[in-house]
Amino acid sequence: MIRTTCPYCGVGCGIVATPDGNGGAGIAGDPEHPASRGRLCSKGAALGETLSLEDRLLHPEIDGRRVSWDRALDAVAQGLRDTIDRHGPDAVAFYVSGQLLTEDYYAANKLCKGFLGTANIDTNSRLCMASSVAGHKRAFGSDTVPGLYEDFELADLVVLVGSNLAWCHPVLFQRLEAAKRERPQMKIVVIDPRRTETCDIADLHLALRPGSDVALFNGLLAELDRRGVRDERFVARHTTGLDDALVAARASDLAECGLPAGDLATFFEWFAKAEKTVTLYSQGVNQSSAGVDKVNALINCHLLTGRIGRPGMGPFSITGQPNAMGGREVGALSNTLAAHMDFTPADIDRVSRFWRASRMATRPGLKAVDLFEALERGEVKAVWIMATNPVASLPNADAVREALGGCELSIVSEAVRASDTVDACRIRLPALAWAEKDGTVTNSERGISRQRSFLPPPAEARPDWWIIAEVARRLGFGEAFAWQSVADIFREHAALSAFENDGTRDFDIGAYGGLDDRDYETLAPFVWPARTADSASGGRFFAEGGFFHADRRARFIAVAPRRPVHAATAGRPLLLNTGRVRDQWHTMTRTGKSARLAGHRPEPTIELHQIDAAARNLADGDIALVTSAWGRAALRVHVTDALRPGDAFAAMHWTAQVSRAGRINAAVNPAVDPISGQPELKHTPIEVRRLPILWHGTILARRPVMLPEVSYWARIRGAGYHAWLLAGVQPLETARQALSAAVRATNPGPWLEGEDGIAAVMSDGRLEAVLALGEARDEAARNRLAPFMAIGRLGVEQRNLLLRGGDADANGAWRGGEICACFGVSCAAVETAIADGAASLDAVGAMTRAGTNCGSCRPEIRALVRAARPRKAAGKAAQKAA
Question: What is the pTM for the complete model shown?
Answer without folding.
Answer: 0.95
